[in-house]
Every structure is written in structure tokens, then in C-alpha cells.
Design goal:
The chain has a single domain, classed as 3-Layer(aba) Sandwich (Rossmann fold). Helix content is about 40%, strand content about 20%. The chain contains eight helices and six strands; from the N terminus they run ααβαβαβαβααββα. The protein has helices spanning about 5-15, 20-30, 45-55, 80-90, 105-110, 130-135, 140, 165-175; strands at about 35-40, 60-65, 95-100, 115-120, 140-150, 160-165. A six-stranded mixed β-sheet has the order 3-2-1-4-5-6, with helices on both faces. The relative contact order is 0.15.
């Protein structure tokens, strides 16, 4: 790996503008994922950093992004359009699949197409009810060495951060019964 690349990786991992992302970036550097699922891509900043770091050894990364895109309600933090997201992510050289919609709707449509995911990143701004229903689909998408990180909102003096979820917690969330719409 070149010195320039090492310095760039060091910068992303330890001096990244968003301290909350550092945990994810360090996990990617330790074990670069071949497949990433991000639920809540927002403004793409985190997505682009993750792809760039995962591809550092010339590895092609498969990226699946779930977001409301143009469907975001007014007054909510603005994100990017579906077209812009696709263009920006493809420019990084990743294999890209974007799924517009809330977590449950998007994953229920594509659950059988998304397999062997090594890294799942879930943004804190996701609708709680939709995410609760979406957990049912997540375990079947994961590779045996997958890591699932969930962003947790700031509490008191603690800043917003990503937490690595234990396998047992993921299984418990997936096993919860959820009412289906009539």
C-alpha cells in the first residue's frame, strides 16, 4: 500500500470530520467488506467514505443503499436524489443497488436478492416501526462474518455513535412478532 493511501486511511480513521463514523471506518480497515448494506444513506458522505476505504486493495465492493431519497418528508434533514446517489456511488467504482423507500418496504421487496452482506450500517433517523418490521429480513442477508452497526442518538453528554450489535440481539429483533397490515 502506498504512503499516500496509508495517510489517507489514517486520516479517515482517526481525524474524520464526523467522529461518529470513525468506529465504522476502523472496522472497515480491519476487515474490508465485499458487500455493504446501508439503511439511511442521507447525504452520501458516509457511504462514499465506506466504499473508498473498502476498495483500498483494489477489491470491488457491492453497495446496497436504502433511503427515502426524494420521498423524504418536508422538514426532515435533506438527503440526495436517487439519480445523484446512483451517479456518485457508481463513480467510486462500486457495484450499486439503491432501494427507495422505508426499511421495511425496501427490504421486503429485495430480501432474496441481497445476500452475503459483510457490513450493515443503520442510521439513527430511520422510522422505528418500519425498522422493527425490517429486522425480520436482515439475518438471512448476512454473511457468516457480518458486522451490524446501529447509530444511536446522543444522550446527555454522550455524542451520537455507532454500536456493533451482537448476533443474539439481531436474532432477537428478527424473531419479534409484528402485526401485518390488514
Amino acid at each position: 500500500m502506498s504512503l499516500v493511501r496509508k495517510l489517507k486511511d489514517l486520516w479517515l480513521n482517526y481525524f474524520s470530520e464526523h467522529a461518529t463514523d470513525r468506529v465504522l471506518l476502523q472496522a472497515i480497515q480491519e476487515c474490508p467488506p465485499k458487500s455493504i448494506l446501508e439503511i439511511g444513506v442521507g447525504n452520501l458522505e458516509r457511504s462514499l467514505k465506506m466504499i473508498e476505504l473498502a476498495q483500498r486493495d483494489g477489491q470491488t465492493v457491492s453497495f446496497t443503499g436504502v433511503d427515502l431519497f426524494e420521498g423524504r418528508p418536508k422538514g426532515v434533514t435533506p438527503g440526495v436524489t436517487l439519480r445523484l446517489a446512483h451517479r456518485e456511488l457508481r463513480a467510486k467504482g462500486a457495484s450499486v443497488r439503491l432501494l427507495p423507500g422505508d426499511p421495511h418496504a425496501a427490504l421486503s421487496r429485495a430480501a432474496n436478492l441481497i445476500t452475503q452482506v459483510d457490513l450493515v450500517v443503520i442510521a439513527a433517523d430511520q422510522d422505528a416501526d418500519s425498522l422493527a418490521k425490517a429486522w425480520y429480513f436482515i439475518p438471512r442477508m448476512l454473511s457468516t462474518s457480518a458486522k451490524v452497526f446501529r447509530e444511536e442518538l446522543a444522550t446527555g453528554k454522550q455524542p451520537k455513535t455507532f454500536r456493533l450489535m451482537p448476533t443474539a440481539e439481531i436474532a432477537a429483533l428478527a424473531a419479534r412478532p409484528h402485526r401485518r397490515a390488514a
